[in-house]
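Hello forum,

I keep getting stuck at the same step: I have a sequence, I want structure tokens, and every attempt I make locally crashes halfway through. Rather than fight my setup again tonight, could one of you with a working pipeline run this one for me? It's a single chain of 250 residues.
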Amino acid sequence: MTDWWDYHLIDFLLFSTRVYYRLFVSFNLAFWPVNLVLYLAGAVLVYRGLRGGRLFQRGILVVLAVMWAWAGAVFMGHYYRPINWAVPYILPIFAFQAVIMVLFSLRKTPLVFCWRGDFSSMAGVALLILAIPVYPFFSLLAGHDVLAAELFGSAPDPTIIGTLGFVLLMRGTWRWLLLPAPVLWCMLTSLTLWAMDQDIAWLPLVAAWLAILGGWMDAKSGVTRKPEATSPAHLNRAQRGAADPAGLVE
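Reply #2:
Ran it on my machine without issues. Output:
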């Protein structure tokens, strides 16, 4: 009889590394127009968010909610669930995050996406760069097919790492309610990648650590009670003599 300490983490997985990455090949082939549109939408969100505008601030959360719902319902629910017994227990995390982001977008005073020049802003931009332009290349570096690329907006890992980046760049009270679900997923996916002996297993943990550290530093400095940061577009208008109101984020 085998003792429990003779088991390794890989023994709890019902699939191989090859099967795992074949899921992304099938997923991308089946939904390549949608996945590509969501991926490009991520880049647009960053660009428009930094330019300011309250309408686009609300839109960021709505689009992120759609991405979480898509990754959860389609990839997790349809492709990943048949080979991973834990997925039914994980799906509520994706549903919760999508709902709470929609609720935040409906608040009277929206969360504001802006550059502040502090640690959270720099960490947020770093995570967005990792999630959007960089993450798709990891499958190639690992020797997998180009169609196995994990794209922001549809694949869970880059979508959630990018979400942490957006949260770090946002201002407003209660915004840290958007962190628990992504942080929990980062820990779960790191265990899975580690069990498959993937070199990128540490990346989700680093992303979660940066998000937690950024949140702690913001709470300590009271950044949510400081005047709202001015976006580059507003700053240019102010320099030309236009009014640039600054208020307190709720």
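Residues 1-7, 226-250 have pLDDT under 50 and may be disordered. If your local run keeps crashing, start a new thread with the error log.
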